[in-house]
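During the reporting period the student researcher (J.K.) took over the structure-prediction task from the postdoctoral fellow and processed the backlog of single-chain submissions. One of the processed entries is reproduced below for the supervisory committee.
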Amino acid sequence: MRETRILEFKETITNTFLKTVSAFSNYNGGMILFGVDDDGNVKGLPDVKQACLDIENKINEYLINEEFFGENFMNRYRESNSTSGKDVGNIISSKTLKGSETEKNLYKTFAGESRAVVKYMLYAEQAKSECYMWLGEVFDNTALNELAHARVVVRTFLRIIGTTLDNLKDSLAGETNEYENLYKEFQETAEREGFTQIAKFYKELREVEESHARAFKDFIDKLEDGTMFEGPVESKWYCMNCGYIYEGSEAPAVCPLCGYPRGYFKQYCEITNL
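J.K. obtained the following structure tokens:
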């Protein structure tokens, strides 16, 4: 018996199996055999009943901690749910979610619905590539349904969507962790195991995530110092509603053509033939 893409051995129960659980959940599932060494030899577990409880508890804890959702994301939840009475809004009366089984279930629901969004978008691409356009539309619409479900969980019950500035900071933290730590570890593992192409993928992925982090940091700075709609004297600003291009050091308060507010303007990047 050997390990495969959907089968993994763990001689003991440590937190290392949690990343495998996450990987399996993002694809089509898989199986972890505990009490089996890397060579497929059965070693057994001293207390199978306790082992089952330990595995369940570790998975539940993993699903609602910083490693899975991000430190900033979790901190906002704790802040919104740290006091009794009004902590979860009018819908959940006076009970606090923190520490409850329902809280764990909500995080599991959010994780599952979020994965389903991406999965169905990819299924839609495949259906369209096989010229099943109707089925592609079905998958696309189902992805939007799953997004709506996830939205209810995080906005209505967990209440962990912050302001745009909060969300930028959370995104910066997540992208930074990916390129500095998570994907670095994955790259090194792939290199150690001889998966050269996958190691190269993680190396290049880290570069992209680092560029995402820089972009988020730039927008954080602009929001905090009030320069979101300011630029050099000879700046050009593009109205994202009607396409009007305005020239000036600042975006206009409203679009001269369609009357939409400043928030619809972004800096215009002009492409010319060299």
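The committee noted the following: Confidence is low (pLDDT under 50) at residues 83-94.
J.K. will present the remaining backlog at the next meeting.
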